[in-house]
Design a protein that fits this description.
Peroxisomal Thiolase, Chain A, domain 1, five-stranded mixed sheet, 2 domains, four-stranded mixed sheet, about 325 residues, globular
Length: about 325
């Protein structure tokens, strides 16, 4: 990976000041305030495409790469497109001026959707030796007006852009992913029969989420991590750091106890500062750890992602020397 950038709105709201807390019952309010999220950044004037565009322009500028030189543009789909039937991917292509890029959308797996996007980017680069760098982007916004997803997390706004190349300071060594369609609608937003201000994310079965899926996740992640390390000839001691998506403090403890690992401190810090940014969390945590010296040249790291649809992925990366950006 040649570079990465994020676009987060400046405006921040402390979680206790979120307007929707007034409509929660006491149990829901306590659960929200116990997640470990201090504040979120949000801007209702920025849609998913604008957030993604902001991050994309940053990473292209850092790399000194004109948009017209991109070989591919892969957009991780938003949870609620602005319009039906239109193309968010080609809208962003036009706004960036990435006219020569092979452009399409990947999604359907919530937070884990960044994983098939990276698999697709790697496939494009392998299939065509003459293809230029591939930009993987996502603008994260909640589907409805509310920010609190009971009992899971609090959503902020943020754009992410990953510049996938044949060279770069972060090497993506391996990826494993699994899904289970039994939980395809565990979390959902009914929208066809109601105006947008009444859209609410709902959990079909809270006990399934809290117990059955949690136990399945424990087994899935353990098996995926073992498989990833074994096929790369590594043990737990060969991995310098682990990061996961930022859902809640309890979620971090669950992951650590399930896998017998310790997540890097940036995970909890970014959870406090930004809340949950969907598919953007794991690479934000990785690059924050790199910037702070928690990961250095030669270190290997594992990125852990889970989605209640349900999907699981584990990525192995290695840090090389930092390249000077143009």
């Amino acid at each position: 990976m040649r570079g990465a950038a994020w676009h987060v709105p400046e405006a921040a709201t402390p979680v206790p000041e979120l307007p929707e807390l007034a409509s929660l019952n006491e149990e829901e309010r306590r659960a929200c305030l116990a997640l470990g999220v201090d504040r979120i950044h949000a801007d209702d004037a920025l849609d998913s495409t604008a957030l993604a565009e902001g991050a994309a322009r940053q990473v292209l500028d850092q790399a000194g790469l004109p948009p017209g030189d991109l070989g591919g543009l892969i957009v991780v789909e938003s949870r609620a497109p602005e319009t039906l039937l239109s193309s968010e991917a080609t809208r962003l292509q036009r706004r960036l001026g990435a006219d020569a890029a092979i452009t399409f959308t990947v999604g359907g797996l919530g937070c884990v959707s960044v994983t098939p996007a990276l698999l697709a980017a790697r496939g494009l680069l392998c299939a065509d030796p003459g293809l230029g760098d591939v930009l993987v982007v996502h603008g994260s916004k909640p589907a409805g007006a509310g920010r609190y997803r009971h009992p899971v997390t609090v959503n902020g706004d943020g754009g992410q852009a990953l510049l996938v190349s044949r060279r770069g300071p972060v090497r993506l060594l391996d990826i494993v992913q699994e899904t289970n369609g039994d939980h395809w609608d565990l979390f959902h937003v009914a929208y066809r029969d109601r105006p947008a201000d009444q859209w609410r994310e709902e959990c079909r079965d809270l006990p399934t989420y809290s117990f059955r899926l949690a136990m399945e996740t424990r087994g899935r992640l353990s098996a995926l991590l073992s498989s990833l390390l074994e096929r790369n000839g590594l043990g737990l001691g060969d991995v310098r750091g682990y990061v996961s998506q930022n859902l809640s403090a309890a979620g971090f403890r669950f992951t650590e106890e399930s896998l017998g690992i310790e997540l890097l401190p940036v995970c909890r810090d970014n959870l406090r500062r930004f809340g949950h940014l969907g598919p953007n969390d794991v690479f934000l945590n990785l690059y924050t750890a790199r910037e702070r010296g928690q990961l250095v040249e030669g270190d290997r790291a594992v990125l852990i992602n889970v989605s209640p649809v349900a999907a699981w992925s584990v990525l192995l990366v290695e840090l090389g020397p930092q390249e000077k950006m143009s």
